[in-house]
Amino acid sequence: MNSEERHIFSVLVENRFGVLARVAGLFSGRGFNIDSLNVAETHDKGISHITLVTHGDAQIIDQIYQHLNRLIDVIEVTDLSTGTHVERELVLIKVAIDDPQKRTEVLQVAEVFRGRVIDMKPASLVLEITGDEGKLKAAIDIFNTYGILELSRTGKVAMLRGSEK
Amino acid sequence: MELSGAQILIEGLKREGVEYIFGVNGGAAMPIFDALYSEPDIKLIPMRHEQGASHAADGYARVTGDVGVALATSGPGATNLVTGIATAYMDSIPMVAITGQVFTHYIGSDAFQECDVIGVTRPICKHSYLIKSNNEIADVVAEAFHIAKTGKPGPVIIDIAKDAQIHETLFQYPESVDIRGYKPQIHGDPAQIAKAAELIKEAKRPMLYAGGGVVLANASEELRKLTFNTQIPITVTLMGLGAFPETHPLAMEMPGMHGSCCANYAFTDADLVVAIGARFDDRVTGDLSKFAPNAKKIHIDIDASCIGKNVPVDVPIVGDAKSVLTELNKLVGPTDIDPWRAQIQEWKQKYPFEYEQKGDKVMPQYVIEQIYKHYSDAIVVADVGQHQMWAAQYFKFTEPRQWLNSGGLGTMGFSLPAAIGAQLGCPDKTVVNINGDGSYIMTIQELVPAVTMKLPLKVFIINNMYLGMVRQWQELFHGKRYSAVDYHDNPDFALLAEAFGATGLRVEHPEDVEPALQKAKGINEGPVVIDFIVDEEENVFPMVPAGAGLGDVIRGLS
Questions:
Q1: N or C: more exposed end of chain B, with fewer CB within 10 A?
Q2: Distance between CA atoms of residues B99 and B71, nearest Å
Q3: Does B305 contact A69 at a Cβ distance shorter than 8 Å?
Q4: Is B122 in contact with A22 (Cβ distance < 8 A)?
Q5: pLDDT band at residue A1, thresholds of 50, 70 and 90?
Q6: Whole-number pLDDT of residue A82
Q7: What is the CATH number of domain A88-155?
Q8: Mind telling me how many Å the CA of A86 is from chain B's nearest CA?
Q9: Burial class of residue A24, CB neighbours in 10 A (0-12, 13-18, 19+)
């Protein structure tokens, strides 16, 4: 068996109902897993951008690429893992605060990760942190030690870097 | 002039050259059927079950190469079409299936006869559309036909809400279709084609392996040219039969599970396999680790996702078979492979398809041989099972679109309605339906429209009173535990045919086979059904057991 690799696909699709189901369906129907998925309209209202993270051996990744391309509503597919790209993800973390001392500590840690406080209540606060996978993992591990009440991630968004010329 | 959505749909179908629509009426499609009632240019063929409608549209498409059209109402009408849609999808048949949908304000409310047909059909169609406004209809029809028939063909579903069928708007049909995400690659990469030509020149034991894609691409002539010019032996799959004449000395006949020993041994020994519009299906390859182990592979296919899916390929060529073969033919000539051709001839002589006559039983293979003898020019529509394999083995097809069967999905019940579509598509040809006793009864109700239209179908049932192929597997692999395959309680199909208003004949003795076939030739005022009562426990050989390599084929006769 070939070794499994993580791949990020950038997929431009027609902005219509049903398109996401077609994309998701080609994964579920073949038993391929989607690790993360992000969909939103682009600057062109007619086009949505899907960033999709998946994994598999070379043959599976090739099948995913080919089958995405085969969908009529898919305009363009790029396997970002084959070129240099930038990627970001945003996470919202609600941390439990049971005493003022802890609040100060959490705020200090948040600063290390360049997190922003977007809500503060007597017993909790919500932080927004952006970064790549490694950074978010480190942040989540640390805040876990304080007690995470709730966590929500966007999934990755990614694109190829601009050309050198 | 303003037209109703239903009228716009019909106008669109006319622009696309639709001759026939196969359908079953029902609530949410009534405006469309109403528009067809007074439409002189399109003939509406009422079928008795929606599955029959989709198979008939499929059969029409297979013989003509044009898009077949099926029409049904929402909910159960649509779900009944599903088997026919999946059948067409697996064999890449151009089809447009139109379904009525409940009023837009009811969609999602579990309304009467509501079903999310787009959701149900998503994995079994090339594309689908839900139309909620009559303004979309004209554009969608044009797009749907374009998608169904170009690239790798396939079924497209148009689901139209009832209010969109009723409301009136201006009819404007698009001049052309441009879908930014859909640009099929027709021409193969010249560098890859040149590489393929080099491999063909160098090979000592090359073989051609052609499939249904050659038929779909109308590339039979180019395939013959390639074979004749290079004198390379060729095997044609179940889906491609007729693309190359099986009567030619270079023809190794069908490969795979019930294919010829010659073709299977050739795969095992070849040093080059040139696949053209074939997809290395598991029924062809057997155990992949033992498949053509010494061969380099060239794979020509219009669907990039098909290449390298099952078998690693040395030279992939994405493109239309007709275009690629035309280019390839410019680069190749006679090959110097006499020892290999001699080997092929030896296998052919040594291991032909053969069977043993058991006493005074009617042997199913004998019936097929006689059908071939009397109807060699006919279009043959087979169902699925043992009779399908015997027909593929013993009928020697010589023309593309002469042989129709559900090779991919293996849909029992396909053939009778598909034969109706085939007969309407080719009114001047004789259409022979070779059926099984199990498959025939699955869509027997479609004898009604065949009788009504007086179609001169020749329905030949190879009746062994069993679900024969399953029984064969039970005999070989399940210790003869014949679970749920005993069909001795079948009705008398000859009498039943008479009840339907067709001619029914029953044949129980070998000497009656030919006279019955002769008699059927003279009956052209409607279908004739001959129930051939054949040996019950005859098996299909050769056979490559599931999971075995092609070299381990069981030849059957000792």
A1: C
A2: 6
A3: yes
A4: yes
A5: very low
A6: 81
A7: 3.30.70.1150
A8: 25
A9: middle
What is the residue extent of each domain of chain A?
Answer: 5-83, 88-155
Q: What is the pLDDT of residues B525-542, one digit of tens each?
A: 999 999 999 999 999 999
Contact (CB<8Å) A63/B305: yes
Architecture label for domain A5-83: 2-Layer Sandwich (3.30)
Cβ burial of B255 (10 Å; 0-12, 13-18, 19+) is buried
Establish whether this prediction's ipTM goes over 0.95: no
B526 with B503: CB under 8 angstroms?
yes
Decide if pLDDT at B557 tops 60. no
Distance CA A119, CA A100 (A): 16
Catalytic positions of B are 50, 112-113, 162, 469
First to last CA, chain B: 75
Per residue in A78-109, pLDDT (tens digit) is 999 888 999 999 999 999 998 889 999 999 99
Q: Is A74 in the B-facing interface, judged by CB distances under 8 Å?
A: yes
Q: Are A51 and A10 in contact (CB under 8 A)?
A: yes
pLDDT digits (tens, 9 = 90+) for B96-116: 999 999 999 999 999 999 999
Residues of B in contact with A17 (CB under 8 A): 130
* CB contact (8 A) between residue A21 and residue B122: yes
- Say how far apart CA B401 and CA B93 lie, in whole Å: 12
What average pLDDT does range B149-164 have in this prediction? 98
